């Protein structure tokens, strides 16, 4: 059997690897900064991939690339990597490679259609690919954790509150008020942004991905939402 393909996604919140076989995601592995190199080395020995792709928005250890180059057919995702979409952005070199990967994934799923991919990681990103396969750009706003941390860091008395799925819409104390304000605010933002794109482009696919996609999806009311990528 031909070996799998390792797809590494090193973000500000999580370090992970998707193990692909036959075009399907078979498994996900997660790493810490301390265990990244030894665990990747062990994973390479265990699964013997035929290729590896690295999407990284952090300062990862140079030894990681050396390891992947020595053991696999290795591609480091960059703005000039051949892709099925054309990047129409003022300075492509400043565009996060995670956003480029999202654009390519959306086009693979829905070619020839307008696509808005909403990434929900450390930041919430809006990434628009038109029906001609042009990645136009989009928007960036603070993610959920960043909003909680900002309230705590930039005030004297507001506590740092962890996100919870269940909270009171009308906050009956400070903690519940922060939960309601941050979470309902994020939901309203995503709904509103989708509506703005709908007003300009009409029919399109809206796709959610990232750490909190499963929190957002049931609560959003916009009819354009399709799936997770």
TrEMBL record:
Its cofactor is K(+); NH4(+). Gene3D superfamilies: 3.30.420.40. A monovalent cation. Ammonium or potassium. It is an enzyme of class 2 (transferase). Keywords: ATP-binding, Coenzyme A biosynthesis, Cytoplasm, Kinase, Nucleotide-binding, Potassium, Transferase. CDD domains: ASKHA_NBD_PanK-III (cd24015). The keyword Metal-binding does not apply. Pfam families: Pan_kinase (PF03309). Substrate binds at residues 89, 96-99, 174. ATP binds at residues 9-16, 122. It catalyses: (R)-pantothenate + ATP = (R)-4'-phosphopantothenate + ADP + H(+). The active site is at residue 98. InterPro entries: ATPase_NBD, Type_III_PanK. Catalyzes the phosphorylation of pantothenate (Pan), the first step in CoA biosynthesis. Homodimer. This is Type III pantothenate kinase.
